[in-house]
Design a protein that fits this description.
homodimer; alpha/beta; Rossmann fold; 2 domains; 3-stranded parallel β-sheet; globular
Chain lengths: 285, 285
């Protein structure tokens, strides 16, 4: 048996096409959807991510303004920019590219951002609304995971999902999404991490296994139940190039479906960010 | 074998005694800790809960002011009271007793409450800070569960915890607390609920099993691994009196430790609320 490959690139293309239509409808009604990105310092991966968000946004008909600050930017300058964009009705979504330069408190910056413009879904208010089951923006990567499953006809409802990794960006919000009543939720969810004593025991229980820790090939073939769906959120730069947290070649022999790296969850993240932005513009217009 | 009974009454008494000392220290420094409770309508259990919070607060040296509103209270009156207490420096903690009378949106009222005074830990900001692993107030019942375990020398770190129930008040925040790095966290956590297909399979994996659904005797002896710790958060009024979600007589033969109902988690909830209030007063003074 060899697993179905869950094509994140194709799925992200669909999402972006839908975003483009919605953006066009908004412009006809006089609203030009716009995303503001706060980018501080010169951390190379951040430069790359921001450029790809900018390009994808512009292709989908969303204007993207990047506010660039030097490594030496002060707390007040960053807070000032977030405050200005909170007030600026021509900007519908705002993201703060993380990490910020050392010494700056990203939590403080995020807490200032208006939840109505928090298209990354990372402010405490957005995360709290998620836990409370209230409407709000969902973080891009975890919502990309559930979207990718959904568009491939895979439902988590009633099934056992094991998430390896408890990060604030992926593992914990994903667990909370999968526990929602109805919609993408209704799963029985287990969260594992570095302190889990028997990772294999938990991973082998999973109908759907999600790896999000950032350790190359952590998930081996023996850790997967035959027929499980395996989602790889890891992106690790190694001597062999970009690899995920899953030993793809071994696991695809056992899984019924698997996401590749690259080309799996990665492209979904940017697409979901754009969808949140067009949704923000629709709500504000 | 018969399980050790985890005495919530005794444990809550310890917590309240510590709160009393801290409150006395605060008063010596000129701050009289004060809790404001918004109580709307005449739902009988709410009247009882509020009275017990008031009594426990006053015994611990915390002034408690109850703002009572009729069933017909308007949204603006409630929001106005929360707003006033947000601004009032003599009030350190505020809780909104739920449920509110029909037609009133409790989420809207909670979103207005200052996170610095949110001693029930139920505002979106507090829940989001919990998910993000940032300092903030933890909800009283789930933090009562971890406190009760901790004071009985039971650690969740590295162990499998299964939580039955995914409510916003207990199940979901408790899962997020147990997933924190360090402290009361580092557990491998599974959350089950009404859509879980094989509840027994998940419950039998648990080193620590927490039941929080509100269904009398849902957890039977067969659902518990021998030697597990069982925490019963349920409070159900039945013809047999107050019973929990756990079949106490059967389960205590298998568990190594178990909380009774009443006298287990219940008393901890009020004690943790008072501890949050004195903490709020310390931070604000």
């Amino acid at each position: 048996m060899s697993a179905v490959i869950l094509d994140g690139k194709a799925c992200a293309r669909q999402v972006r096409a839908e975003v483009k239509e919605r953006a066009a409808r908004l412009r006809k009604r006089g609203t030009a959807p716009k995303l503001g990105i706060v980018l501080a310092g010169d951390f190379a991966p951040s430069q790359i991510y921001v450029r790809s968000k900018q390009r994808a946004g512009e292709r989908a008909g969303i204007e993207v303004e990047v506010a660039r600050f030097p490594e030496s930017v002060s707390r007040d300058e960053l807070l000032g920019r977030v405050h200005d964009w909170n007030e600026d009705t021509s900007v519908h979504g705002v993201i703060v590219q993380l990490p910020l330069p050392g010494g700056l408190d990203s939590a403080e910056v995020l807490e200032l951002l208006s939840p109505d413009k928090d298209v990354d879904g990372l402010t405490p208010t957005s995360l709290g609304r998620l836990v409370a089951g209230r409407p709000g923006f969902l973080p891009a990567t975890p919502s990309g995971v559930v979207e990718l499953l959904d568009r491939n006809g895979i439902t988590a409802s009633g099934r056992r999902v094991t998430i390896v990794g408890r990060s604030e960006l992926v593992g914990k919000p994903l667990a909370n999404i999968l526990l929602l009543k109805g919609g993408p939720g209704d799963a029985t969810v287990t969260v594992c991490h570095s302190r889990t004593r028997d990772l294999g025991a938990s991973s082998r229980e999973a109908d759907i296994l999600v790896a999000a820790v950032g350790r190359p090939k952590l998930v081996t073939g023996e850790m997967v139940k035959p027929g499980a769906v395996v989602v790889d959120v890891g992106i690790n730069r190694t001597d062999d190039g970009l690899v995920g947290d899953v030993d793809f070649e071994a696991v695809k022999q056992k899984a019924s479906a698997i996401t590749p790296v690259p080309g799996g969850v990665g492209p979904m993240t940017v697409a979901m960010l754009l969808r949140n932005t067009v949704l923000a513009a629709e709500k504000q217009s």
